[in-house]
Amino acid sequence: MRDLRFVVVGAGMAGILSAIKLREAGLTDVTVYEKADRLGGTWRDNTYPGISCDVPSHLYSYSFAPNSEWTHTFSPGPEILAYLEDVARQHRVDTLVNFGAEVRRLEYDGSRWRIETSAGGYDEADVVIAATGVLHHPRYPDIDGIDRFAGPMFHSSRWDHDVELAGARIGLIGTGSSAVQIVGALVDSVGELRLFQRTPQWILAVPNPCIDDADRARYRADPAAMVELRRELGTGFVEGFSDAVVDASSPQLKMLQRLSLANLEDHVSDPVLRGKLRPDYQAGCKRLIISPSFYDAIQRPNARLITERICGVEPAGVRTIDGELHRLDALVLATGFRVDRFLRPIEVIGRGGVRLDEVWAQRPIAYMAVSVPDFPNLFMLNGPNGPVGNFSLIDVAEAQMAYSMQLIDLLHRQRCREVSVSRRAMVRFEADRAEAAKNTVWVTGCRSWYLDDRGLPAVWPWTFTRFREAMARPVLADYELV
Ligand code: NAP
Predict the structure, then answer these.
(1) For residue 180, which atom of ligand 1 is closest to its CA?
(2) Which atom of ligand 1 sits closest to the CA of residue 51?
(3) pLDDT tens across 260-282, in order?
(4) For the chain, what percent of residues have pLDDT higher than 70?
(5) Under DSSP, is residue 432 helix (H, G, I), strand (E, B) or coil?
(6) Which of 107, 363, 390, 442 fits 457 for a cystine, CB–CB 3.0-4.6 Å?
(7) Ligand 1: centre distance to CA 52 (Å)
C-alpha cells in the first residue's frame, strides 16, 4: 500500500462527501481547502428569502446519513445547510477544512500536485478532488446603465440582508427557480414588486407539506423507513423526470406539460396575464420550476409582471422598451450563473504544462464528468456535462465519488502511480454525448443554461440508470495507468 495525500477543493456538499469517503476507506491524510469561512457551498451562498430545494429532502440527503428531522417535503435552505454542517461534524471532517483558503493554482509536477492558495499557502498532494460546484459564479446581466442604479442592487445568490425591503418598491429580473421562490417569499412584505420576465416558465404546482412531529418520531425510531422512502422517491424521480428529459417524446414529459398548463389555467384568471405567462416551448426544455404559490403571488395587487423588454437601467429604476420607467428602491438580479466555470478561476496545469484553460478554451469537457486527459490523479465531482439537470446532485456526487475511489484504489495498491483518462476515450465520449443529446428535451427550442456555445446540452444525455451503470465500475481500458 502506498500512503497517499489528498487535497479536496471546496467544502460544499461534494467536498464534505469526499472527505468522509476517503476517511472511510482508511485514507486519512486529507486536507479540504475552502475559500469561505463556513462550509455548505451553494447552501451557504444562497440565502435569498424563500430558498428551498426542488428535490425532496429525503432524497436530497446523503445515502449514508438519512435525516429524521426534515421539517418539509422540500426543506428550506437553512435546514439543508444545518444538515450538511451536522454531517460534517458527525463524521469529524469539519476539522480537516482549511477555511478562508482559496486555491489559486494547481500544478502537476510529474508526480504530485502542487497547490497554492491566494493567501500564499502551499501544499502538495498525490490526488486532488475538485468539489468546486456548478452554479456558483453569479451571472450579471449586461444591461445598459446597470451600474448607474441609485438604490441597492444585488444578485440573488449574494443577498444583501442589510437592505430593508419591507414596504419598498422592488424590481426582480429573471424568472428562473431563484426568482420564483423569491417572489413567493417577498410579495406580502414589500410595497410593490415588479418582476421582469424575458421568457415565461413552465411551473408545476407540487405541494410542500410539513413533515409533522409524529412522522419525524417514526423516522427517528425506524431509520429503515427513511431508507425505504428515499428509495421510493428516487424511483419516482428517475421514472417521472430523469428518464423523461433525455427522451423529448416521452409520455412523462407530455404529462408534466399537461399538469403545468392546468396549473396555469386553473390559477391565473386574467386571460392577458395567462397569455404572458404561457411558455411557447416544451415543458422540461428549460429547468422545470416547482412552485405551488407563484401564480397566486404574481396576481397580488402589489405585484406586476413586466414582459416588455428591458432597454436600460437608470438611477431611478428600470426602463422598458415601451418607454415606461419602473421606479424602484431596490433591484434584485435573479439572472442565473456562469455555468461553464467549474473549478476555474483556479489556474490548473497538468502533465507537460498543459493548461486546463486551454483544454477548455471552447467549452469544458470531462470524461464521465470526472476526468480530463493530461490531468492525472485529479477527479471532479459534479464536473462538466454530468447529470446536473437530471437528478439529485448529492446522489450524482456519491456515484462519482464511488467511481473515483476505484481509480484511487489503483494508486493506493500501487497498481500505478498515475491515472488519467485517455484522449481517445475522451473524444469518443464527447462524440457519443453529442449524438445522444439530439434526443433530449433540452434541444427542443428554448434558451437555457443547459446549452453550451454550440447549442448542445452540457448535460448527461442518457438515462440515470445508464449513469449509475457507468459509475459502478470504471472501464480501465479508457484510462492510462502509468
Ligand atoms: P436561471 O434558471 O438561469 O434563470 C435566470 C433568469 O434570468 C432567466 O429567467 C433569464 O431569462 C433571466 N435573465 C438572464 N439574463 C437576463 C437579462 N439580461 N435580461 C432579462 N432577463 C435575464 O437562474 P436561477 O433561477 O438562479 O436558477 C439556476 C438553477 O439553479 C436552476 O435551474 C436550478 O437548477 C438551480 N436552482 C434550484 C433551486 C431549487 O432547488 N428550488 C432554486 C434556485 C436555483 P431567460 O429565461 O430568458 O434566459
Answers:
(1) 25
(2) 42
(3) 999 999 999 999 999 999 999 99
(4) 100
(5) helix
(6) 442
(7) 15
